Amino acid sequence: MYDIAIIGAGPAGASAALFAAKAGKKTLLVDNDKSMTKRAWIENHYGVAEITGPDMVDIGKKQATKFGAELVTATVTNVVKKEQGFTVETEEQGSFEAAHVILATGALTALAEAIGVATTEGKEPRIKTVFQTDASGKTTIPGIWAAGTCAGVSVHSIITAGDGAKVAINVISEINGERYVDHDVLKTN
Ligand SMILES: Cc1cc2nc3c(=O)[nH]c(=O)nc-3n(C[C@H](O)[C@H](O)[C@H](O)COP(=O)(O)OP(=O)(O)OC[C@H]3O[C@@H](n4cnc5c(N)ncnc54)[C@H](O)[C@@H]3O)c2cc1C
């Protein structure tokens, strides 16, 4: 049983996976390589002078797996509520059990119908439908969260990555029963 399964490894999902895995949570990251970010050339991401979208996505996945997130290439077809947690079903790689699920599927929200989470109209250009969430990232099914473009935030890499981090921190905090922060300190002589 994974503590947290994240669907989508674009900036939102990989950022969530990096925080979850670095916090010591058993983390699954499932992605089917359809990130819109792979079409971008990015010069507006704070702290990064310029980067291609494919490089950003590749580095994000490597950061997440470096801390122990398990990356699986597959299309998620459904997330089914069990007595304890959820079963994440995939087309190609079977199914996985997880206590919490974070949806980070970018512009793709077709999964909503199978899962049964509520959606609402997207406000961002070209984003027609998003998962309905509260301010913490909770969807209408307890234990299923959403982050990034699919949760309706502004469609920019720094904001979707930040939202993935925010939602992961909220999930980690809920699991731990207290607010969680991840601060590494610069070593000086
Ligand atoms: C042409 C273009 C140029 C852009 N230029 C910029 C720019 O200059 N600056 C900027 O800040 N932003 C730019 N953006 C926007 C940026 O890409 C997005 O704001 C943001 O990074 C999206 O992140 P995300 O993680 O929400 O979605 P995505 O990056 O789309 O990631 C979603 C992931 O979910 C996966 N997924 C979806 N459904 C499933 C499923 N059922 N099973 C498994 N995996 C699934 C997809 O394969 C994908 O990898 C640009 C976008 C485009 C299209």
Automatic annotation (TrEMBL):
User: Oxidoreductase: is it a keyword of this entry?
Assistant: yes
* Domain FAD/NAD(P)-binding: from-to ranges: 2-123
GO terms of molecular function: oxidoreductase activity
Q: Identify the InterPro entries for this entry.
A: FAD/NAD-bd_sf, FAD/NAD-binding_dom, Ferredoxin-NADP_redctase_2
Keywords, ordered alphabetically: Flavoprotein, Oxidoreductase
Cofactor(s) annotated in UniProt: FAD
Which proteins does it associate with, and in what oligomeric form? Homodimer.
**The protein's name:** FAD-binding protein
Q: Which organism is it from?
A: Brevibacillus fluminis
